[in-house]
Amino acid sequence: MYSTLFFIHSWWAYLVLLILVIAAVNSLIGFFTKKEYGANDFRISLFTLIVSHIQLLIGIVLYIVGILQNAKYFSAFSNLGMGEIMKDSTLRLYLVEHPLMMILAVVFVTIGYSRHKKKLTSHPKFKSLAIFYTLGLVFLLSRIPWSAWF
Questions:
Q1: C-alpha separations of 4 from 11, 45, 61, 102, 106 in Å
Q2: What percent of the chain has pLDDT over 90?
């Protein structure tokens, strides 16, 4: 089960990254060019929200299953303890930094989407999306395990 979830989580991450880049760029272009907020902009922002939440759920389940099945990195919890995990940069990335930063990235996407819905005109909608989706993208990019991606 762990390997299947890991496979899904790994490949779904490419979709999340792609759509978040598209959404952030779209919102920045909309904000700086002062274009009207339209149906396609809404679809892009909503799809970003949905895709990122699905990835978060897959990641949480993967984390729990990894702990329960004592998978590759997760055995460090029982074997080494948290102090040793924090000293090892690889373990710290996979077990602490990556999950925390991805949760924060999804929180920023959610805040941006929620705030933009409350705005009545296009410019403030794009501003909310641009700020929070770009923050989410920065957080996401900061803690992707790049060595595992290539």
A1: 11, 28, 11, 20, 23
A2: 59
